[in-house]
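Weekly puzzle thread! Below is a chain. First person to post its structure in token form gets bragging rights.
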Amino acid sequence: SPCRAARLSNSPAASYLNLGDIANAVSVLAPELLPNLATLAPTGVLEDTQLFYAPEAPSGEQLGLRGRFRDASVQAHGTLPSVAGLHGEFFGTDTHGTATLHLARLTWAPTGWNFPAPIIFTDLDAQFGWTQSTRAWTLALPLLAGHTADVGLSAQGRIILPKAPEASPFLDIQARLGAMDMTAITRIYNVAGFPTPVLGPNPRSKAAG
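Winning reply:
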């Protein structure tokens, strides 16, 4: 809206922010976060970032944030993957927003999922958005697409999070795998843990097809 645009045009702005410097400042203000930030070791740059906050304003004009980031990276921590070469932009208010991301590399080492080695995405693109109404938050994922050395993956969907405590969330996700040599399964997943009726008595059936 014109009001929102005017607020952003007159709001505090930063043309260049180093993520490492931001992490250092946060660790000073909140020392309890220092161990996590030290492990994540964020690097990269935020550019053309603007923010306004006006709690007395009407819904949709209380909060505004936009900016771009480039060459961002974080190290793996707990269940979070390591990320390198992250570029993107974002815009949002207290009622809606969008973000576009591109990753040059993502390494995920899930625990307890029977994967023999980390899953490495050589590229990953994503678009997502959010809207807030009086009844729910809606998170939309119109695009998620990436590649590993063995397979391409794409997905889209949405998640609805009702505000009423008695209401249940709604999840609608559709995922697709590209063409893949079935021998790659043994590199991606530890099929040795599968029961014999699933794979058949012939051990070669694990890597055929």
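Puzzle host: Confirmed. Bonus trivia for everyone else. The chain has a mean pLDDT of 81.
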